[in-house]
Design goal:
The protein is α+β, with helices and mostly antiparallel strands. Helix content is 42%, strand content 25%.
C-alpha cells in the first residue's frame, strides 16, 4: 500500500448535471418526436455527461515506490525538491498570475488547497508541479518522507 493515495473525484452535487441535461433534452425531444426518440436521447446524454464527469474525477495523486504520481505523470522521488503547501486562499494566485507557464499542473477547481513540488533535476524544463489535493499537509509529509528515504537508499 502506498504511503499516500487520493482520487480527485468530482463533488456529489456535480452529478446533478447529467440529470438536468438529460431532462432538458428529454423535454425538447418529447414535444417534437415523442418517447421513441426522447428516451434514447436522454439516455445518451446521461451516459455522455456522466462518463465525462467520471473521467474528469479519475485523476489520482499518489506517492508510490520510487515516484510521485499526479494524473498520468510520474516524477521520480530522486527529482523531488522542496514541497510547499498552498492553502485554498492562496491557490488562485498560484495557479493564475503567479504560475510559471512551464509548470506541470494537475488542478481541479473543486479542490481548494494544493501543493507545489519543485523539480530538482537540471535537465528537466519543468520548474515545479502544482497539484490539487484535499490533504496537502498529509501529502507533503508523505512525499518528503518518501523522497528522503529514496535519497538515503544505496
Amino acid at each position: 500500500m502506498p504511503p499516500y493515495r487520493e482520487r480527485l473525484r468530482v463533488p456529489v452535487s456535480w452529478w446533478l448535471l447529467p440529470v438536468a441535461a438529460a431532462l432538458s433534452m428529454w423535454l425538447a425531444f418529447q414535444h417534437a418526436y415523442g418517447p421513441m426518440v426522447s428516451v434514447p436521447v436522454a439516455a445518451v446524454v446521461v451516459a455522455g455527461v456522466g462518463g465525462g464527469l467520471f473521467a474528469y474525477g479519475r485523476a489520482t495523486v499518489a506517492v508510490e515506490a520510487g515516484a510521485f504520481v499526479a494524473g498520468r505523470a510520474r516524477l521520480p522521488l530522486w527529482a523531488v525538491g522542496r514541497v510547499d503547501v498552498i492553502p485554498a486562499a492562496e491557490a488562485r494566485a498560484a495557479r493564475g498570475p503567479g504560475a510559471d507557464p512551464r509548470a506541470y499542473l494537475l488542478i481541479r477547481g473543486y479542490v481548494g488547497p494544493m501543493i507545489r513540488v519543485w523539480v530538482d533535476d537540471p535537465a528537466d524544463p519543468v520548474p515545479y508541479w502544482l497539484v490539487s489535493t484535499r490533504s496537502p499537509q498529509r501529502l507533503a509529509a508523505a512525499l518528503e518522507a518518501a523522497r528522503d528515504a529514496a535519497k538515503r537508499a544505496p
